Design the sequence.
């Protein structure tokens, strides 16, 4: 095993970027001992792509409302989901979410809500 070099102190991120651009990190870090899949709780969360099946009418309603608000419809969906998550975390009841689904912005029809409720019971 070769002796590792000491990592210098940097005065700025620019200086650090330049250093690592010119130097091989293996000369400074034993990557065999590195933690696999470390967590960085203070970093901004990354996004993950998902697939979500929506009825055409629901998607059209979302697009219309988003257009009225002058925001992309996918961003609008994230706003709605985030608002409901915050409410849920504050101790709101699950049935309020179901009421929201049936009444807010005309996104869902009442029979869709009933269908969701009946599927949850199964």
Sequence:
């Amino acid at each position: 095993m070769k002796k590792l070099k000491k990592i210098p102190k940097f005065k700025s991120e620019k200086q650090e970027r330049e250093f690592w651009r010119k130097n091989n990190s293996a000369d400074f870090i034993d990557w065999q001992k590195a933690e696999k899949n470390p967590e960085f709780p203070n970093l901004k969360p990354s996004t993950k792509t998902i697939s979500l099946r929506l009825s055409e009418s629901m998607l059209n309603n979302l697009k219309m409302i988003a257009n009225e608000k002058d925001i992309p419809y996918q961003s609008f969906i994230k706003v709605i989901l985030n608002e409901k998550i915050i409410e849920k975390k504050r101790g709101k009841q699950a049935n309020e979410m179901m009421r929201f689904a049936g009444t807010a912005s005309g996104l869902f029809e009442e029979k869709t809500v009933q269908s969701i409720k009946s599927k949850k019971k199964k």
Observations:
- DSSP finds five helices and no strands in the chain.
- Residues 73-89 form the longest helix (17 residues).
